[in-house]
Design goal:
Structural class: alpha/beta
Distance between the termini: 54 Å
Oligomer: single chain
Helix content: 40-55%
Shape: globular
Radius of gyration: 23 Å
Strand order of the largest sheet: 3-2-1-4-7-6-8-5
Number of strands: 8
Largest sheet: 8 strands, mixed
């Protein structure tokens, strides 16, 4: 084995490979950070919108009724809070529909008082067919041209529609506006890291992607969409585990715009246990891989050139994660054989410094951009140095675990699998 490792360390390709492992975290962080600052400075109605009084009046006149669809499966711990928040949204008329998708708990019983008061409609399904089918079944019942899609644990700010609806008035190509999820339960270490993540990674990346006019995904927690655009594409795909990523790509490949509105705030409960967080993020990774499998060839066509940055950054991230794991295994194997890489110590030091620098940079930019929307976010800043260490390690493991299954396995019906027991503990303050 010694000749093999000696030849490997002396190969110029190894130097390039090691440089890629170091440079990718910093490069992706800088790209998102610079793009997010450019997004903020461009008052383009399809990318950044500050509502003027006249524009808001026109939006209310054009869309007097907004439908709200909340698909739910075993959501007894959160559904009442979500409905109370939704009914407090400022808009002339709301048409609220809860889709009980085969719940076996008390979800239906908790929704009934709102139904009996005439403020909410309930669509009850006896069989759990998944979130996509629940949304699709509700669409023909919606009275509004625009539909606010919410998760059952979402807590929207009263002004979300005032921030989101005007996009559809001033830019006719807009098909969907996604809001800004904010983590509310920031008592645990994992939840604090996710609060930073939703600004440092999600918010910054969406702003950066918007410079190209294409987003990787909207947030399934909070999205306002043109019902006719979704129906025209055949509705949400029931076999995709991340219906939000899939629909984002389908809309954009059809020539429509998906817009990020950071001023539209939606509270959410983040997973507080490592197991729940792993299951959630594994689903996201598998879902992205399914989307790449289904849409890459179409996205590569010249007419869809604005999708290319998404393909490039997504593809490089997948390659980087697998390369890092492979390199770690090789380094671990070479050490006991007495032929470690000659520059292993400086390389590891540089890699650690670059990763921390990239993560802290994104955290600083994200907190700075979101501070005016979420002033309490600055309290999470002391945890920012931990964010890149934990976040990158978790992402690498998830990508390696979930990408290949998502790419090679044929998708099947995606049903609900959402554990809510920890949210009940969070709401009780335990």
């Amino acid at each position: 084995m010694r000749p093999f490792f000696d030849a490997l360390w002396e190969n110029p390709a190894y130097t390039i490979f090691a440089a890629f492992l170091c440079a990718h975290p910093l490069g992706s962080g800088l790209l998102s950070a610079v793009g997010s600052l450019g997004f903020r400075s461009r008052p383009d109605a399809t990318r950044w919108y500050v509502a003027e009084p006249d524009g808001l009046d026109r939006a209310r006149s054009r869309y007097p009724v907004i439908s709200v669809v909340i698909p739910a499966h075993n959501e007894e711990t959160v559904i009442a809070g979500a409905l109370d928040a939704v009914l407090g949204i400022s808009w002339p008329e709301l048409d609220v529909i809860v889709v009980d998708d085969g719940s076996t708990d008390e979800t239906r019983r908790l929704v009934l008082p709102y139904v009996e008061s005439g403020r909410v409609r309930l669509l009850r399904k006896s069989t759990n067919e998944g979130k996509s089918m629940a949304i699709n079944d509700a669409l023909p019942l919606c009275r509004g041209e625009l539909v606010l899609l919410m998760d059952a644990d979402g807590l929207p700010d009263a002004a979300v529609l005032e921030q989101m609806v005007p996009h559809f008035v001033d830019a006719t190509t807009v098909a969907l506006v996604t809001g800004n999820p904010r983590v509310l339960n920031t008592r645990t270490f994992l939840a604090r890291l996710q609060a930073i993540e939703f600004s440092a990674t999600v918010g910054v990346q969406r702003r950066g992607d918007a410079v190209w006019g294409r987003l990787m995904t909207f947030s399934g927690l909070c999205a306002l969409f043109d019902r006719s655009a979704i129906v025209g594409l055949g509705g949400f795909a029931p076999d995709m585990v991340t219906e939000d990523i899939d629909m984002t790509w389908r809309l954009q490949l059809a020539g429509r715009e998906v817009v990020y509105e950071p001023a539209a705030l939606f509270g959410m409960q983040a997973p507080e246990s490592l197991g729940a967080l792993w299951r959630q993020r594994h689903r996201w990774v598998v879902g992205l891989a399914q989307v790449l499998r289904r849409h890459t060839l179409r996205a590569l066509k010249p007419a869809n050139w604005r999708m290319w940055p998404l393909l490039l950054t997504g593809g490089l991230s997948i390659v980087w994660a697998h390369a890092l794991v492979g390199a770690t295994l090789v380094w671990t194997l070479s050490e006991p054989l007495g032929v470690p890489p000659p520059e292993i110590a400086p390389f590891l030091a540089l890699f650690g410094a670059v990763t921390i620098l990239a993560g802290i940079l994104q955290a600083v930019v994200g907190i700075r951009l979101d501070h005016r929307h979420d002033p309490g976010l600055v309290r999470q800043f002391p945890w920012a140095p931990w964010f890149p260490l934990c976040y990158w390690v978790l992402c690498v493991l998830l990508v390696v675990r979930g990408t290949l299954p998502g790419l090679w396995r044929r998708p099947k019906l995606a049903v609900w699998n959402v554990p809510r027991e920890e949210y009940e503990a969070a709401r009780a303050g335990r």
